[in-house]
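ok trying this again, last paste got cut off
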Amino acid sequence: MEYEAVIGLEVHVQLLTESKMFCGCSTKFGAEPNTQACPVCLGFPGVLPVLNKRAVEFAIRMALAVEGEIQPFCVFARKSYFYPDLPKGYQISQYELPLCLGGYIEIETDGGKKRVGITRIHLEEDAGKLVHEEAYVEAGTSLFDGNRCGVPLLEIVSEPDIRSPKEAHDYLVRLRQLVMYLGICDGNMEEGSIRCDANVSIRPKGSKELGTKTEVKNMNSFRNVQRALEAEISRQIKILEAGGKIEQETLLWDPEREVVEPMRSKEFAHDYRYFPDPDLVPLYIEKEWIEKVRSELPELPWRRKERFVAELGLPEYDSEVLTSEREIADYFEDVVAFGVPPKAASNWVMGEVLRVLKEEHIGMEAFRERIGPDRLAGLIKLVQAGTISGSIAKKVFEEMRTDPSSPKEIVEKKGLAQISDEAELSRIVEEVLSEHPQEVERYRAGKVQLLGFFVGQVMKKTRGKANPKLVNQLIRDKLG
């Protein structure tokens, strides 16, 4: 029997606020354990939480971006469960009355564009963190760090519209891109800024009835989400084909062994005993606030991509790469604003700029500090004007990584200006041709591909400084 997967994702996005959801503690990552915790976020008796307005604004941004329906009245609830990293025994979340209902995120599939529906978006606080250091584990215990307690989270729950692990991966990539464009999350997977739980079931292809679902946790990258789903789908198919029954349970993904293992039986909503938090008043979101946030939204990535194609004449591929991150798209547009042809700017950003970001593991902000858009535009203009060749431009670019001088000054200091003197180049071309008589005969006999060989020899003698267009013309003229 042929089966199909039914997948829904629950994504927790850590919001980029300076303070926590219900208190003034810092959310900065990497602080010493338990230095960013207080009686409020640790749930001491008698404390009163106060809602972070900035976190609500970020949630509104997300709701508007996915075209969800913002609820004018929403309520915070206590979600009760008992675990060592949750000192107060409950998490403040939203349940029956969340901030947003509906919406969608669009992905590209082999069959074209597909909309993955959003069930709900709601605000909640994070739990703490257990540290399993070897010495303490051997003694039968672990350490607790309360710094993460109360950090603002946005939970985005998708509809079960995803039909393959690849679609799940692409959905997460698009979601990460969106929250980074909106400026509500830094997208840092290594620091846990985006975490994902996957609900998956299988059913005979063509069937409308849903199978028993399992939940897969402990996936710290989008690639691991895809691999974990592939493993779980395979496991479920084997069970059904052997005449077994799928149990509703929570599973952990082991990336080293590439297997899923049972963690606990899957909870139902009633297991959490939700009830309205008596310390927090209901939240009313006025239309004026929604419209103010809407007016401040940045251009969304897919709309920016369409504009790059329609207005700047860029290929679809270039536009997709350039808009993958907001900072990259901003940098590209800043370069173009200095009067550089869009395609030339695209080639340099996609090539040399992204190479440096990858090599040095830095972000665009750090790169801008060394090579601003004005300097890259100046370098491209030197190539456009014929002052330097493309190959020399790459050498100048490498110098610019450490030398704050303008591209023109670097060219002058290093003596890298392109040789366009026809008499000088004519002499060098004749020298090359006289050194390779056999190749000259083969060229005249019809082996015209040797033109590139001759050009290469001229470039070698001039250390890449010869004007390639003029060199090509001179060689053709002299070889008839």
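PB: full thing came through this time. The longest strand covers residues 112-125.
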